[in-house]
From TrEMBL:
One of its GO terms (molecular function) is transferase activity. InterPro entries: GlpE_sulfurtransferase (IPR050229), Rhodanese-like_dom (IPR001763), Rhodanese-like_dom_sf (IPR036873). It comes from the Bacteria. Pfam families: Rhodanese. PANTHER family: FAD-DEPENDENT OXIDOREDUCTASE (PTHR43031), RHODANESE-RELATED SULFURTRANSFERASES (PTHR43031:SF18). Residues 41-126 form the Rhodanese domain. CDD domains: RHOD. The keyword Glycosyltransferase does not apply. Keywords: Transferase. This is Sulfurtransferase.
Amino acid sequence: MLEYMQYLFAAFVFWFVVSKLLPVRGLTALTPQDVQDRLNQKNQHIFVDVREVHEYKQGHIKGFQNIPLSQLKARLDELPKDKSIVLTCQSGMRSRQAAKLLKKQGCSQLAHLKTGVIGWSGPLSK
């Protein structure tokens, strides 16, 4: 029985890790240049940085509003479901989690900076 539980636990851990790494269906992965192009079309997109406030204040991409992932569910009413939403975070992981949450809430036009802010080649605002 103990051996069975160990296999079950290992399978759960494997599933958890894989589920975090799998691509989000319908999420467009953008390069820094793609994001810059979309920033030049401001009226067509909503830009959201899902890092925590202290991370955002250390430097963010100009044009991105801060809605931390930890607050996103409570602040869904700030994001129109019928507009394109471009997400970013530090490395691309939290923006994918945010996309999963937004997709479940009915947002369909989702994209993220696949490298996160660490891959951004332009200037950062403070």
